Amino acid sequence: MARCPAALPADHTACAGPAAVTVLDADNAGADGCEHHAARLLAVLDRGHVFALPHAPAGAAHRVFKASAPQGARLHRLADALVTSPATPS
Fold it and tell me: Which domain of life is it from (predicted)?
């Protein structure tokens, strides 16, 4: 089963539903994702933003934001998050 684009390479968990939000980094590069993976991605981005997709359930972006408490190192760019695991920042 394919995972959403917001899933980090080191995160082997399954998606929690369909893509509901877009996570943007400080340079406005983005990835759509389920609430679960979007929260994990947002947590490792410095100055990241989350926006609900048009078909998202009410409160999706808010839930992702609340669930994205910082997890160690913060990364500036989405590309860095997709290449570097949050457990092993470069």
Answer: Bacteria
**Ordered per-residue pLDDT tens for the chain, 90 residues:** 578 999 998 888 999 899 999 999 999 999 999 999 999 999 988 889 999 999 999 999 999 998 887 655 555 566 666 655 444 444
User: Where in the chain are the domains?
Assistant: 21-81
The alpha carbon torsion through 68, 86, 5, 62 (nearest 10 deg) reads: 0
pTM here is 0.76
